[in-house]
Amino acid sequence: MGFPSYCKWAALALAATAAAQTTTSCDPMNKTCPADTGLNKYRLNTDFTAGSLGRWNTTAGTVTTTDLGAKFTINEQGDAPTIESEFYIFFGHVDVKMRTANGTGIVSTWILESDDLDEIDWEQISTWDTEAETDYFGKGNTTSYDRGTTVTVSTPEETFHTYSVDWTAERIEWLLDGVVVRTLEYADAVDGTNYPQTPMRIRIGIWAGGDPDNSEGTIEWAGGETDYTEGPFSFYVESVNIINYTPASAYRYTDKTGDYTSIKATNATISTNLGSSNSSSSVASSRTSSSAKASSSLIASSSASASAAASSMSYVSAAPAYYSSIFAMAVGSFVAGLMQF
Ligand SMILES: *[C@@H]1O[C@H](CO)[C@@H](O)[C@H](O)[C@H]1NC(C)=O
Ligand SMILES: *[C@@H]1O[C@H](CO)[C@@H](O)[C@H](O)[C@H]1NC(C)=O
Ligand SMILES: *[C@@H]1O[C@H](CO)[C@@H](O)[C@H](O)[C@H]1NC(C)=O
Ligand SMILES: *[C@@H]1O[C@H](CO)[C@@H](O)[C@H](O)[C@H]1NC(C)=O
Ligand SMILES: *[C@@H]1O[C@H](CO)[C@@H](O)[C@H](O)[C@H]1NC(C)=O
Ligand SMILES: *[C@@H]1O[C@H](CO)[C@@H](O)[C@H](O)[C@H]1NC(C)=O
Predict the structure, then answer these.
(1) What digits encode the pLDDT tens for the residues 25-80?
(2) Pick the CATH number of 43-263 from 3.40.190.10, 2.60.120.200, 3.40.309.10, 3.30.830.10
């Protein structure tokens, strides 16, 4: 809608230049960090219509629960309510059933992000009202902007759709209402070096890409300036269903490669990432079979109707990497010690 896609290319390139640079409180590629708290069971479903945020922490603004689910509202400039899972998963499947917000330049998004800045994204910019976007980053590499794709979605602001990611060591699938709309193979991400492969936390939030204080490129990417007098703008998340393919109470980076084979999953009490621990079990050997099994059964059940949807149009991606800088400016800082979008 509105902008032809070639304009978005240009806008996104600008936006990305202006705003990319995610931060992390401790990058295990560089130093010894606390181990990541894992989800130590296979499944965790959260129904936000039941009146509680469950195992999700609010890291910016206020998120309430309503009959429609968790409600993320922008009332005024600077609002960017966000929640994140209090645990990490290491390969898995995440379904987020959500209805995105109205309003020029308003971005409703959920992402997976790791301590060394691997990232998998879904986002919907209100201005492009029949489009949603998929994206990914490996180790915070933002030197190119050809990773994003656009997917057609019908009435995302009036209809709840399920935006999913199925993530294994071999490939990432993005699914819309159970239909695979994009697949990224490990080798296709700079021979795996830019492939998201480290334990991830899930973040869900809303922000104003069209905030008048943002760079011109970001505003263009978001489809124009946000007019806060048209608000409030609300994004609803009905439920999040998570499968963790490597259930464990903690994940540890055993070296600084950021390679998935270096990650140890353990149920033992440990405090730091680096260094050896005999109580940990190696994930690399067992993970593949269990994740492949789990994901293929998910696919089998969902891809029967899979002929539609994938109108993937490659375009420049600016992505939630700039969530961080925009937020940092607009909101101040998130909870100390947490990474930012
Ligand atoms: C980690 O080290 C790399 C390479 O030295 C550097 O580019 C990156 O900015 C560092 N990350 C953080 C969070 O300091
Ligand atoms: C998240 O919230 C839980 C309580 O629900 C709390 O125990 C935990 O410390 C919080 N985590 C962070 C990182 O703030
Ligand atoms: C970053 O991404 C670019 C473009 O895909 C790639 O050429 C480059 O090798 C990557 N850098 C690293 C350090 O992986
Ligand atoms: C968005 O706008 C449409 C059309 O005006 C309206 O039907 C819908 O309820 C709005 N959705 C939200 C989440 O406000
Ligand atoms: C940790 O415990 C859970 C629950 O018993 C189990 O499913 C999982 O396989 C264990 N993980 C490891 C790495 O031992
Ligand atoms: C850990 O295991 C290795 C090899 O199995 C063994 O050599 C080492 O002594 C063990 N370390 C501890 C602290 O138990």
Answers:
(1) 789 998 888 899 999 999 999 999 999 999 999 999 999 999 999 999 999 999 99
(2) 2.60.120.200
CA angle in degrees (0–180, nearest 5) for 235-241-243: 140
Q: Residue 135 phi/psi, 5° resolution?
A: -160, 165
- Cα(296) to centroid of ligand 4, in Å? 36
CA atoms lying within 13 Å on the CB side of residue 287: 26
Report the run of H or E that residue 122 belongs to, with start and end.
strand 119-125
Ligand 3 pocket, residue 143 CB under 6 Å: yes
The reply to whether 84 belongs to the active site is: no
C-alpha of residue 288 to centroid of ligand 6, in Å: 26
For the whole model, what pTM was predicted? 0.77
Residue with the smallest CA separation from ligand 4 atom 3 is 158
